[in-house]
Specification:
The protein is mainly alpha-helical. It has 10 helices and no strands. The radius of gyration is 18 Å and the shape is globular. Residues 1-11 have low confidence and may be disordered. It has one domain (2-203).
């Protein structure tokens, strides 16, 4: 009876092909925003701001796109697909280990989003969004805790010794990682709140999503 009701209502909890296409299109836009933000911060900001806030700034500017995407699809798999595509991009840029990190991030976020209509709940979705970016930020430090020597050796060709020392001062310090996580969560929440306000006032009202 339940399956029949789902079919009759035209709704399903599984991702359909149109949902996958929607996720890919929006995530391409999200990845472009991420790359542009990272490039601008690298060029214009200090190394300290770069390490402390670049993930949070990405979360801030990607939020409007994610809000529309997640409310339009609103099915299990939104965070996993988003994380998978981000991981694939990082792997293409030479950080293959980050793909495994993002697969784990996506899985954890999907567990956090278990329940009914969680993607349409601004509170639950906002928590999921903040969790996603917090884990993304922490993921950058994973090599230093699991394969530090190999990771640092791989950086020798692209980093100066000063650059490596700066990286270690941020990603190798628990207190700095806590600060990075805090900044990331705050900016993610601010971005999601702003994105959701834009979504409800304009996009949802115009029935564009």
């Amino acid at each position: 009876m339940e399956d029949r009701q789902v079919i009759e209502s035209g709704e399903s909890k599984r991702l359909a092909m149109k949902d996958v296409i929607t996720l890919v299109i929006f995530n391409v836009a999200i990845l472009i925003v991420m790359v542009v933000v990272k490039m601008l911060i690298t060029v214009l900001a200090t190394p300290a701001f770069n390490y402390l806030a670049y993930v949070g700034v990405m979360a801030l500017f990607c939020a409007p796109l994610f809000v529309v995407m997640s409310n339009r699809v609103a099915k299990t798999g939104v965070y996993f697909v988003t994380a998978l595509l981000a991981g694939l991009m990082m792997a293409a840029f030479g950080s293959a280990w980050f793909l495994a990190v993002m697969i784990a991030v996506g899985a954890l976020c999907e567990v956090a989003m278990m329940g009914k209509e969680t993607y349409r709940s601004p509170v639950r979705n906002g928590i999921g969004y903040a969790l996603y970016w917090a884990l993304y930020a922490l993921g950058s430090a994973i090599p230093l805790f699991f394969f530090k020597d190999q990771y640092l050796a791989s950086l020798q060709g692209s980093y100066t010794q000063e650059g490596i020392d700066i990286l270690l001062s941020f990603y190798g310090s628990p207190s700095m990682l806590a600060l990075i996580t805090l900044i990331t969560v705050v900016l993610a929440v601010v971005g999601f709140a702003g994105g959701y306000a834009l979504y409800t006032r304009h996009i949802k009202k115009a029935k564009l999503a």
